[in-house]
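Entry:
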Amino acid sequence: MSTPEVKEKVNLLNLTRDGMVEFFSELGEKPFRATQVLKWIHQFGVEDFDEMTNISKACRAKLKEVAEIKGPEIVSVQESADGTIKWALHIPGGQAIETVFIPERHRGTLCVSSQVGCALECTFCSTGYQGFNRNLSTAEIIGQVWLAARHLNGLHKSDNRAVTNVVMMGMGEPLANYQPVVNSMELMMDDNAYGLSKRRVTLSTSGMVPQLKRLIDDIDVALAISLHAPNDALRDILVPINKKYPIAELMPAIHHYLDNSNAARKVTIEYVMLKGVNDSLQHAKELATLLKNTPCKINLIPFNPFPQSDYATSTRQSIDSFSDFLIKKGYVVVTRRTRGDDIDAACGQLAGKINDKTKRQTRREQSSSAETVSNKKYKKQIPVELSN
């Protein structure tokens, strides 16, 4: 005798407004139920259907049979001396992702992850060093906002919203996980969910040009580009996706987005400052030339070291000289203040726990080991008088 199949419950965190309307329609319920449940979940942080008191008992009973509200589980919470908070969140498959909240005087910014690890291998980024496992679902992305809001505001408080801005700048490349990221940003801006304005939701990309060209047709948010180099030769090394989508293709895609966006009147150009690599006055001159006629704000990011990195942070003098040159050329330049570095929550330091499908870490360890052996052999061949 066969065992009856148990139908998997629908996680309502996966549903946008349209998805929620369709879900309730299939249950034989009116569309207004979608609005009610969206508010209970995202504005009040409720996960128990019995607490949704303006919904009939019969509907609540039906929901308990076929649906659930399930976000990532909190593994740990760390708070920096500067008030920055980092959550390590468990997701299925033995993985962990990280989410960071940065409090400031007039706003609170939540840095949200879109993937478990990252496949793009930017050489200065701890996340990229860890490798890649999989994309996050809509529930796992918006679930980070949901958990942070519950943690910061306390349960069932819709009148004290600590999260005023969301940046898709955590672990992963958002445009490599396109639809779940778009769905999540749609919920962030939905008046019956988090109600954030278009200008308070920012997507940061390393430059996946086809998806960037498509993005404005699906959603209008603020845009940030992880540029980090003013020419292809250097960017090919720092941001390897540049080999596939070089600067000459990236810049027109940026202009296309800006020309059609109400939110992204300017693009934020993110530029990590690496000592002796991309921080010279010549690099600043190249950057000024590259960005001519591009409405932008330049965000200089002092490199945040991590154990496996060979890079060092640019000196304060180099950063100031770089910034001063660009300002004199008429650019708006902001040097990002490092936040949360004492808990490894600063830009480029997020790593989580990743079962790396790419075997990137193993390859690097083997390569490093082979290089060490080679160097030892080489040193043995050097005459003593030349090795001092």
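Confidence is low (pLDDT under 50) at residues 155-160, 345-352, 366-388.
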